[in-house]
Design brief:
single chain; globular; about 20% strand; about 210 residues
């Protein structure tokens, strides 16, 4: 779990140390890929502000896409939907791509694809995050249809990804406290991590003692 009092580089190192074990275990268990997804966890309205890329003052924890306040949590799931790792909380105004880059998740997943032969499948919101993160191919800018092989690629990707996206539903459906949080949104990542640990206990997925 990341230690907030440390530098950003220390937090990235701690997170990498945690998820490298999760990714190694997924590969050792015989899975051929993992699923990357993000979710906005609902919280009370906050007065904290930040500057947008255009230099405007905005609500730090407000997500324009969802029109709600919350924390952005990234997660990695097995193909059957069981979440195996979750991130710390990031402000809701941040895009998924920026979150995974700032948390060094892209580096970890690209490493897993290269060293463990374990690519990650993701939606189009993660486009351009690296060779190890497979995203759908977008329609050509001129409005023409995708080539047949590219359409087949997108169809296959959707077919492999859909069940893994159940990961957040498993957590939120089981643990009511995740449906709306009144504590500081910066603590939501810790709450989700605790829920993940309890979920692993229920699914008998905890590491074996040696």
């Amino acid at each position: 779990m990341a230690v907030r009092s440390r530098s950003p580089w220390s937090k990235c190192w701690a997170s990498c140390h945690c998820w490298s074990g999760a990714l190694r275990r997924a590969a050792d268990d015989g899975w051929f890929h993992v699923i990357l997804d993000g979710k906005l966890f609902d919280c009370d309205r906050l007065s904290e502000t930040t500057l947008s890329v255009k230099g405007d003052t905005i609500d730090a924890w407000f997500c324009g896409k969802h029109r709600d306040f919350g924390a952005n949590i990234q997660a990695v799931m097995r193909p059957d939907g069981l979440p195996i790792w979750t991130s710390e909380a990031m402000p809701g105004h941040l895009h998924d791509t920026r979150c995974v880059r700032e948390l060094a998740i892209t580096a970890a997943l690209n490493w897993a694809a290269a060293d463990l032969d374990l690519p990650a499948l993701a939606d189009s919101g993660y486009e351009g995050t690296g060779h190890g993160i497979k995203t759908p191919l977008k329609q050509p800018a001129d409005g023409s249809r995708l080539a047949p092989d590219n359409r087949a690629y997108n169809r296959l990707l959707r077919g492999l990804r859909w069940q893994g996206e159940r990961g957040f539903a498993i957590l939120v459906g089981r643990w009511k406290t995740l449906r709306h949080t009144t504590v500081s949104p910066r603590r939501i990542g810790d709450i989700v991590a605790a829920a993940l640990h309890l979920t692993h206990f229920e699914y008998k997925y905890l590491p074996q003692s040696r």
